[in-house]
Amino acid sequence: MSLISIQTVSKSYWRDSLEIPVLNNISFEIPEGEFLGLMGPSGSGKTTLLNLIAGIDRPTKGAIKVSDTDITTLNESDLAKWRARHVGFIFQFYNLLPVLTAFENVELPLLLSKLSKKDRKEHVEFALKIVGLSDRIHHYPRQLSGGQEQRVAIARAIVTDPIFLVADEPTGDLDRVSAEEILKLLERLNSEFKKTIVMVTHDPRAAEKAHMLRHLDKGELS
Known about the structure:
This protein is about 35% helix and about 30% strand. By secondary structure, the protein is of the alpha/beta class. It has a 6-stranded mixed beta sheet with strand order 6-7-8-3-9-10. Helix 5 (about 145-160) runs parallel beside helix 6 (about 175-190).
């Protein structure tokens, strides 16, 4: 069963009166529970496609359906609520707030929910336990290694129990050992917790972990 359906999607940007095409008439399905790797040279449109799937950006043409929701028809307010409920984001540079502890960084997405303080605490502690950082719960980002910071970021991504995760070069800023730990964690989230993952990567080692690989080049998907 398809969780995400990309239907004849194109994306262009405008610079003054010049149209710059980035994605050209892309269609494909992502089954529920899939671990998809998106590869391609710089400028091929990988991050643009990821942003469209996650509802951060909108296609110029075409439709994107997640479950039964056509996210391209949602207004900005409804799209923001949909993202908060359904999508977990993992970035290359972690995007943690330096003035907040690991606990507080992971709790951030839950502050928009109706959960009680007690329930938020349970969710945060469980997410940090999954990523193996129960002993770093009160540490600030500056007190953590790069790999630990990325694990905090992954805990933040999963704390709302999203229906899928998008990861943009999740190992791009890590040394080889830390990168391998992060990839094992993503594999576990996919196999044990059944999280659908869409990952953009340049790293062949990361791509090997994906179950399904698609290549973008000059806006065309293969």
